[in-house]
Amino acid sequence: MRIILFGPPGVGKGTQAKLLMEEFESVHISTGDLLRDAVKRQTPLGVKAKQYMESGNLVPDEVVIGLIEEVLDSERARNSFILDGFPRTVAQARALDQMFERMGITLDGVMSLRVDHDEVVRRLNNRRMCRTCGRIYSLDKLKGLDATQCRSCGGELYHRDDDKPETVKHRLEVYLKSTKPLKDFYRQTGRFVQIDGMQEIGYVHKMILDWVYRSRGPNAAS
User: What residues contact residue 92 under an 8 Å CB cut-off, 6+ apart?
Assistant: First the structure.
């Protein structure tokens, strides 16, 4: 299975990608994770990305494309992947198509998850990340519990700068302006679908599975 998941920040792409990864034993390629790892390791691409991420602006195409190409060049990722958070612009989509063609990769489909913007701001404002292991928590799930310590490794939980309300609103504005033409680009391929991400996680996952099996044909479940 080779699919793309996209939508605004906080829409739940990462959560659904992880569920699909378990379902299909696919590689989850999250551009957010790739970028944060590159920033943490202070790679050349990471240094370039850091200034844009901290201000809530989109990272330049050449930086993201470089990271994606490194991952897609691995045999494991070529066979089955869930691409999360990329592309965000038509230019990135075209560059991705060129990479797929060069590598002999056929894309199964493209899915867009939709969530109301007020809900996105609320979700991200309530999100906390462990400084040590990177696990993400929601304050909604931590009610009555210690919201400063990771349950997995004991590390410190913190509120990322790019998850704070004003930055999130700016990220949404940038996202909408940059990606508005993207839906039309992928609709032309006949492999585009939009799913309501406001529903309960399990129900959203079921809708995604229904679409995946339909898009892959009658032998998809085998």
Answer: 61, 64, 65, 86
Please say if 122 is a catalytic residue: no
74/105 Cα distance (integer angstroms): 12
Strand 109-114 relative to strand 192-196, pairing? parallel
146 dihedral zone (left: phi>0; alpha: psi -120 to 50; beta): beta
**Are the CB atoms for 92 and 65 separated by under 8 Å?**
yes
Per-domain residue ranges for the chain?
Answer: 2-115+180-216
**Strand-pair partners of 29:** 83
88 classed as catalytic: yes
Is 78 marked active-site? no
13 is catalytic: yes
Catalytic residue among 36, 88, 123, 128: 88
Domain 2-115+180-216 has CATH 3.20.20.150: no
How far does the chain reach from its first CA to its final CA, in angstroms? 12
Instruction: Phi first, then psi: give them for residue 117, nearest 5 degrees.
Output: -65, -35
Q: Active-site residue among 160, 164, 191, 216?
A: 160
Q: pLDDT (tens digit, 9 = 90+) per residue, 152-192?
A: 999 999 999 999 999 999 988 888 887 789 888 998 888 88
Q: Report yes or no on whether pTM surpasses 0.70.
A: yes
Token readout for 18 is: 């992880």
- Asked if 102 is an active-site residue, the reply is no
